[in-house]
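Quick one, T. Sequence first:
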Amino acid sequence: MSVVESRKDMLSALLLAILLFDCNFLQTAVSTSVTYDSKALIINGKRRILQSGSVHYPRTTPDVWPEIIRKAKEGGLDVIETYVFWNYHEPVRGEYYFEGRFDLIRFVKEVYKAGLFVHLRIGPYACAEWNYGGFPIWLHFIPGIQFRTKNDLFQGEMERFLAKIVDMMKDENLFLSQGGPIILAQVENEYGNVEAAYGVDGALYVKWAAETAVGLNTSVPWVMCAQWDAPDPIINTCNGFYCDGFTPNSPFKPSMWTENYVGWFLAFGYAVPFRPVEDLAFAVARFFERGGTFQNYYMYFGGTNFGRTAGGPLIATSYDYDAPINEYGFINQPKWGHLRDLHIAIKQCEDHLVNANATQISLGENLEAHVYYRSSNDCAAFLANYGSSSDATVNFSGKSYFLPAWSVSILPDCVNVVFNTAKVISQITLNDEPFTRNITMRESSLSSASWSWYKEKPGIWGNSSFEASSLLEQINTTKDTSDFLWYTISIDVDGNNKQNQTNEVGLLIGSLGHAAILFVNKQLVAFGYGNHDDASFVLSAKVDFHSGSNKIEILSMMIGLQNYGPWFDIQGAGIRSVVLAGLQDSEKDLSSAQWTYQVGLEGEYLGLDNVSLANSSLWTDEGALPINRSLTWYKTAFLAPEGNGPVSLNLSGMGKGQAWVNGLSIGRYWSQYLSPSSGCSEPCDYRGTYDASKCLKKCGQPAQTLYHIPRSWLQHSENLLVIHEELGGDPKTISVVAQIGQVICGRISEDHLPPADTWERGVGFVSTTPQLRLACETGQRIASIRFASLGNPQGSCGAHRLGSCHADVSSFVKQVCVGEERCSIPVSMDTLGDPCPNLTKTLAVEAHCLG
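Structure tokens:
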């Protein structure tokens, strides 16, 4: 080989190496980038249709994060969305906490391990029915500060925290450009709903927030939800029950839905809201039908407001939200399964949705099709009946299709319907119905437990009390260190100058919220409270004073700091007026009198909830156990239930208070506050526009009676239970409830749609035999078959009955299913027999799962 040829070969090899390096570099650059255009987010160079779900890391415990995330992935999600909760990450300015339930880095890494993306909603305002909307209380006490507006003090603190979180993510290589899972970040939250209240400074604040976020160089897009004027390049997104009519504020931004409410939050004194899955699926299908690209369920797993994390006013401890995964981490059927099948069907249309524009075709009144053509003979279609009352049969591309009212059918090949939003074939799971409690839950009463107690003394209890010649606002006084503030005053009555035969007077107490107990001369006289929509109230009482000095003691109670609305940070709480009427035939306003104050309760100051005081002499067990007594602390021990199933505390026999297990607060309870006796609608017609008050259950009952105890908080030996009862209850009615099983049901007809995952583009239906599928929770197996009938079975899950046509298929179903975690039963007349040849048969099965 000549020198020239050798040099040519060396040059060729060098050029090839450079070319390969360039290709690899470009591939690496493309594979770790996220951008967007008008059609979709572009991840690794490819437009994506994404299903997302909200999972808030502090609303459960780290040991169950992987299981929740796994179920979310199996449910068809691509993305996990979470807020970042500033008040718990920086409880004291400059002092940070990222441990336990608040280990944000660990949570993001768990999502990454599961192969899902993350949408990190840093805010730092969250709302989220979280105490103070996620703002730390110390922020409120910076002189001159104003939240969420053009204010240098607030903007400085907000920018510092935003940078803190972004830098933490960068240090751990968690953004997509670094090989991590974070593809989106959010600054602010739903500010567009309140922006007008802040005037010109509101618009300036939005511009500043956008510029600040982009300046942090996350390398991923930023969003502002419910923000019509989000400056470019920030993506404005939709929040609501329906977002199919949403249009971004710039033509080059994709249509994104960051909060699709799967139900609604729960408040004390209100009935329990729920959202039918048929309507939820309809809303999602319509969104993607009309050009949507990213959709997030709020919540996919709601969890629990442990401790005093619940926002206000009066947000309950349960944050179940009727989510696809319930408060305890169990799959909520049929919601989870029906949405999973929807996600599969939409994913089969992804290439068409992101690469073609929709052709809209009218099929009649309230009937339409949106067709996505990649070529003249390659398309995907959505057929919609958005009328709320009438079913319809439509003609599309020469074929006839039946469309139930308020439904969408999905045709990935423009021919075969693989999913209809109104046809639910997913199993149903009964977890909390009364008739299943005796077989799915094991309840251990604490009636025979050994109880100790500590009685609070009304009024001033320590040397930290102070005086003021006015009624002080509660939040500014307690600084949210306690739910409680004592207002105390003495009134002198001169018996020699009485105008009346009695000293009966009227007390009129006005409060900004949220609740208050009135004591006169150490006797409980009255209790008053507001509600979630209007926390203010007036407490009125008739009081018989005695001659001489009379003591008025008012215990004002907070139930969560306000978390939403314009200027929510300056909305007050506590007693605002006290008027005496009838004393010596006169009216006396005590609002500007000299009052004595005490923050908190003595039991809080002593730390009675702490494990270290479990054997303290402060507790007594001498005499009869006091019941139905206000301001009483109770203590006992209990053994952890066997098994691995969810555990809760039944507090239906208690009044109002807070509970701790092994020193950890499981939250506030308020069993005596009943919801209105009317207004419930169960079952609820899914057809027609949904709102938070449309579908309600448990009218005339407490909002919540079962309170979640995480398994990881329990010891195998004895566990300490401490209750602080504020109003009066009977601790012997308390029980520890362990879920040991479930009742699950399935129903499918022989002519029903096959499950969506049995269809493949280019192949068609893999199997035309419908399958009834049953699945227990992880760790449980089918123990028995409670009902099995092929024919025209009647009733519903938990209340099945035989129809006029019936084939007993229980032996076959038992053979296939008993002992299995999951099973699949073909609806085949060849296998099951045909009890009535001229009738379309339905198979209904009810099974009992046990751990």
